[in-house]
Amino acid sequence: MPPLTHALARGAFFPRRARHGRLSAALSHRFISTGLEELDASSEEDIMRKSISAIAMTAAAIAVPAMAFAYPTQPITIVVPFSAGGPTDTVTRLVAQSMSAELGQNIVVENVGGAGGTLGAARVAQARNDGYTLLLHHIGMSTAPSLYPNLPFDPTTDFEYVGLVTEVPMVIAARPSLEHETLADVIAWVQAEGEGVLYANAGMGAASHLCGLLFMEAIGTQMTVIPYQGTGPAITDLMGGQVDLLCDQTTNTTNQIRDGSIKAYAVTVPDRLDSLPDLPTPAEAGLPDFSVSIWHGLYAPSGTSPEIVARLTEALQIALADENVIARFADLGTAPSPASDATPEALQAKVVSEIALWGPVIEAAGEFAN
């Protein structure tokens, strides 16, 4: 028997699953019957060639879909465009752990800080669009176009949107020795002292920077702004009394408020928080039109396939429904985004609307980088 014929007889050209059960029997019966019927008209070699061709086509049809959805097959990196230990880093690590379990691959969190989050975002914008380099960024994706005239990426075209992750409330806080007891008292003091009040933030484009801009606009008074390289040093100096005020995310301030290391006056969202129930809302504290929260989203480089984006969105939604993630977020004063918001469409709408919202605020403040 020729080698090719011998191989076919042993089933070498059949997919592994096709060698057994009903599919194997059906294929074998089909080709044996075809061969008998055409024996008088065709040579054995022609029959064998047609059979092998049909089997190869069947195998290819089975294999291609499986290969198309073979993702992920290696570890994934999520870039956090801020330093380790900050609120965005904390959120990312909690979500990454749960997503890793769902995807069956390790997820490495890499901190690429600098320039208000734009360095890390630019790196992901320029990365291969194979689904193995992602970005978890906050509201800075919408403020960067106004803050950075020479921004090296476009948030609306250089990324594929995966979904919203969380929307973190903020807290207006002060050094523990500040004698004022209510936010109304603090506002009156700031308006009287003006630039004699030292306001700390974590640097250009940070959440604390943005909240400070809105707060000063709301009360019509400019404070002296002290920028730090990260939230950690800013809070450390607030605790030590080197600066007076800071507005930052609950993910970064809740524990310090609870243990008395810093003094808090109000949350920055319309409803009180279960994690800090004694803090009034802006309306209750005398700032009815003041509201700001820091949303976070997950992104992939532009051109990432729809199948990969869909798989990432699915894994994100499963992670955000994880009881451990929900509990840990609650400890930090926030909550995971609902499944209806953890979608590409919701994140895209958020980015576009927030670019329009923050542009005039930043323009009025006249604060720009590079």
TrEMBL record:
Signal peptide limits: none
Domain of life from the UniProt record: Bacteria
Cross-referenced Gene3D superfamilies: Bordetella uptake gene, domain 1, Periplasmic binding protein-like II
InterPro entries, per database record: BUG, Bug_dom1
PANTHER family: BLR1237 PROTEIN (PTHR42928:SF5), TRICARBOXYLATE-BINDING PROTEIN (PTHR42928)
Protein family: Belongs to the UPF0065 (bug) family.
Descriptive protein name: Tripartite tricarboxylate transporter substrate binding protein BugD
Organism expressing this protein natively: Ketogulonicigenium vulgare (strain WSH-001)
